[in-house]
Fold this protein.
Amino acid sequence: SNFSLRLDRLKANANVMLMNGQGKMMMQSKRPKRQPETINMNALGAGTYYVKVFPARRKDKTRYQLRLSAIEIPRPQPVKPVNTTSDNTSNTEQTQPPKNEGGKSRQIALTGDVAQTGPIKLTGSVNRLIRGTLGNDTLRGEAGNDVIEGYNGFDTLTGGAGADRFVLGNTTTPYYLGSGYALITDFSSAQGDRIEITDNIFYPLSGYDFRHKRSIGFNAFGQLVDFGTAEFDTEIYWQNDLLAIVQDAIVTL
């Protein structure tokens, strides 16, 4: 999410600090006098964070207003259904590719007195959009419902907990055509995971082939590896061009 913080309505000079779950400083704002303090951070992942408000000089005391805002990633709109199974069979949905703009804003306004205050604890799981590059990427989600979108190269996609969407193409063309493939490591229909593929007049669903077998091949370092365990994997092809391997899960159209 895109995180922002504003500290204002100060009667004396006060500063503000954003810290991670271990209490280590990530960013702080220390403007002079009674100017409002702000912190802005893009792509802040789900987790636990702390906000500390403290006076510029130990003897200073003031009331303040603290406002926090996080812009969530919008949920993609459904397009086409895909049937998937991990230990059992369930229905999933095609989704259109996510956009960076939009989303929901969560805003919290707080007021209080500042002397030598302790930290304010912020906890939550925020949905994230995680995008790869033209190179070989390792993309990992966290506890929220993440959208994980590789592109080309040899990518490893891991969703983590939550109902994740693994994007293998946009509305125009599939990804990985003639250039590597994605390895999806933890697909789980039980968690509500979904896989997105392109479906249009140039790349219809009839051109895809979902092959179920133990996948053994070369990774990005040229090493021969067995993907996953003894469970069957799913290899997703567009006309014999490998787009993705779904490790230890059966996926069907």
